[in-house]
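fold-stage: in
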Amino acid sequence: MLAGVRRFLFPLLLIALIVWSARWSTRDEILRDFGSFWASGHAANQGKDPYGVYEETFRVGSPSGPPAPNLNPPVSVYPFRLVALLQPEKALRLWRYASLLVYTVVILALFGRYPERRQPLFVLWAFSIAGLWHTLELGQVYVPLLALVAGAWLLLETEVWPVGAVLLGLLVALKPNLAVWPLLLLLTQKRAAGATALATACVFSLSPLVFDGPTIFKEWLAVTPSLHETAGGMARIGGNFSFIAMTGRLGLPAAGLALSLLLLGLDGYLGLVETLDLTDAGSLGLVSGLLLGPVSWVGYTILLLPIFFARRWNLPLKIAAALLCFPFWAAIRVDTAGGTERLLVESTYSAAALLVLAGLVLQIAPNRHADAFRSRFRLLQPAPARP
């Protein structure tokens, strides 16, 4: 009975979810976040402040709502300058098509590395993740970030690991909170990869000084929200699943900072006491970096894909995989209700990230402790008598 449900009902539900989400994400050509990126690149091409507010800059809630300019580090402005060479509406359409194509290529590459995942249900799940369709709706940059994640993940295991380390460094330059990954690599047998990634991140991050001087950093810092603003404002927008967002919704932003420090301590403990491999370091680095935030939107959840390809799905990972498919268009509808319903929906993706973290810890720590125990136990055994 259960096998029949899984074989027929689950695929039908996922197909329906994909179709509905695809229609929702492409229902119009409003620029949304993509407008902020286009405006940033267009301003830079004209010698203006790439972090200013312009006509195409996305405004939250309504055309008269608060502006949401580009908040990505200065190194992000250069690809946005290329995008801004096209008209914004045409650029958005091409960006969506390119994002879906790159996402498909990433899935195929991961299937090549993990052939045991080549199952129809797994394919449908990978295209049902809410973060994918919300990314396409907003015109966000998360799919290129996923390409960097997958490239680093796959290449670090090969002889051309320096290329993977460079890709990881570029990822960290674009999203500094993901520096947890190369830091954990320093605690594995791939210390050179971790050091290369961090050095590359520094080079990419500081490169705008050569081309634009310190002004662009001043302009970026001027629009970067403080911790208090993040916990009190952005945290209340549905979909932000960082620790600071979780506790900020409860009016306890300091608790989010404390949880972030505890998570860093846990990562350090696992890296120093346990024997992490590349998969362990990558898995912990990704989910920890997203939880540390301070702002981690729904679209960021697609960066967790390699974890679900590489690891055995224990119960926490299974529940997390289901929660990641909860469509954001449904979350928006409940989000307007307020009260307990809103809090529960806004916590959906937070719960998924926490479950991924729990699933990883359950897989990494007990196995390593068991191996250490068996090793110590063997040392206590008397040596076998010689014949």
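fold-stage: in (second)
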Amino acid sequence: MEKYTYYMIYKEYSKIAEMSFNIGGEAKDSMIIKLKGKSIKKVFHNMVNLLSRYGGIIPIEITDSKRIYAVREDLGPLVGAYILMLRRARNYSKWHKFLERLLNEELPGVVTVLSNFLEMALELSKMWTVAGSKNRTQSQKAFDIISSTLKHFVDRLEKMYKV
């Protein structure tokens, strides 16, 4: 099986669903961002439908309770930044329209900027992750800061482009 770098994973439990964005290499995968909640099922399916239209994902494993998709390498940082932006979001449909505009290439250069936001979140997270702790996941504080900054950035950007 061919190795992919970016993955979207959806898991459904009895009462809740979760979605995660993972970055992996030849050796192992690392979960970067995880979202949980009652709206996550709809968010995930909307993303899958949208990314499928652009040939942006490849199904890896589909079961009743778990779905794993590889994200096309050039879209991986965009998808990661988008999922990061969704942290603690209230109006998912607003952000879904933004993703659609990005995939339609209506906002030139913004994909690169969003990729830099993701990279910045990962670097900041590394600085704040406690070395030697049992839980070596990314720092949630860093993701909260960058997520709210991303939302503000996108709001201002859309006003500039007069959406």
